[in-house]
Design goal:
With about 230 residues, the chain is an alpha/beta fold. It is built from nine helices and twelve strands. It has a single domain, classed as Alpha-Beta Barrel (TIM Barrel). Helices cover about 35% and strands about 20% of the residues. Strands 1-2-5-8-9-10-11-12 form an eight-stranded parallel β-barrel, surrounded by five helices. It has a two-stranded antiparallel sheet with strand order 3-4. Strand 3 and strand 4 form a beta hairpin. The longest helix is centred in the last third of the chain and has 18 residues.
C-alpha cells in the first residue's frame, strides 16, 4: 500500500486527530476550523466512550461523503465484533475517499492487512489485552500496518487521569514500532500533557468523547486547546 495522507502527516509532525461522536459534517467542520489535522468516523458501532451508535455503510454513506468533502484526511472504524465491513464495503469506503481504516487487532480480519486493491492505509489498535508485537516489529512483508493506535486502557479506567505508567507503555510501543503511534484519549488527557506524549516518541493524539464531549461546541473548544498545546511544542 502507498502511504496515505494521515500516516504521511504523522511521520512529519505531531498530529491532532478528532474522533467525531457522530457522522456529522458540521461537527467535522467545527473540529477542522478549531485546528484538527484529520478526523475519524465510525460505522456499525456502539461507541463505548460516547454512548452513541452509528449505522451501516448504506445508512451513513451520504454523511461520510459530506465529511470527506471538507478536504481533510478522514479515517474510519468500520465496525466491531461481528459487524465488520465486508471486502466490498471496504472498497466502497475507499471510493468515498476515506484515507485509512482503524480496528482493534483482535477484531480485524486477517484479509484486511493485505487489501492490495484498496488504497486505504491500515491502522491497527493495540488493546488492554492484545499487544500484537509481531505486526509492528516484523519489518518485512506487506502485511505490516501503516499506523498504530495505542488504545491500551481498560474500560474501567476510562476517564481517569493520565499516569506515568500509561506514558511508559506508550513510550514502549513507540520505541518498538517503526510506524507512527497515535494515543487516543481513553484517559482524561489534558492539553498541557501533550509534551509528555511528544517526549514519549508518539506521533499524535486522537481526541474523543472523554475530553471533547459529544456536542459541537465542547468538541471545538477541546480541539482548539489541544491545537494550541501542540503548536507550543513545535
Amino acid at each position: 500500500m502507498s502511504i496515505g495522507r494521515t500516516d504521511a502527516m504523522l511521520r512529519s509532525r505531531f498530529g491532532l486527530l478528532v474522533s467525531l461522536p457522530r457522522n456529522d459534517a458540521e461537527m467535522g467542520r467545527a473540529a477542522l476550523e478549531a485546528g484538527a489535522d484529520g478526523l475519524k468516523v465510525h460505522i456499525n458501532l456502539e461507541h463505548f466512550a460516547s454512548g452513541l451508535s452509528t449505522g451501516s455503510l448504506d445508512e451513513e454513506a451520504d454523511a461520510l461523503r459530506e465529511i470527506v468533502a471538507l478536504g481533510a484526511p478522514v479515517g474510519i472504524v468500520p465496525g466491531a465484533g461481528e459487524k465488520i465491513a465486508t471486502r466490498e464495503e471496504m472498497l466502497r469506503l475507499a471510493e468515498i475517499g476515506i484515507d485509512f481504516f482503524d480496528l482493534y487487532a483482535q477484531d480485524m480480519p486477517a484479509w484486511m492487512l493485505a487489501l492490495d486493491d484498496c488504497p486505504m492505509s491500515v491502522m491497527v489498535a493495540f488493546s488492554a489485552t492484545h499487544r500484537p508485537w509481531a505486526l509492528v516489529e516484523n519489518v518485512g512483508g506487506r502485511s505490516r500496518p501503516d499506523m498504530i493506535e495505542a488504545s491500551i486502557i481498560a474500560h474501567d479506567d476510562y476517564g481517569t487521569q493520565l499516569t506515568a505508567a500509561d506514558v511508559s507503555e506508550y513510550a514502549e510501543i513507540a520505541r518498538r514500532a517503526s510506524q507512527p503511534v497515535v494515543v487516543p484519549t481513553q484517559k482524561a488527557i489534558r492539553p498541557d500533557e501533550v509534551g509528555v506524549l511528544v517526549d514519549a516518541g508518539t506521533a499524535g493524539v486522537l481526541i474523543g468523547a472523554i475530553v471533547t464531549g459529544s456536542e459541537a461546541g465542547t468538541m471545538a473548544h477541546a480541539t482548539e486547546q489541544f491545537r494550541r498545546a501542540i503548536d507550543i511544542q513545535s
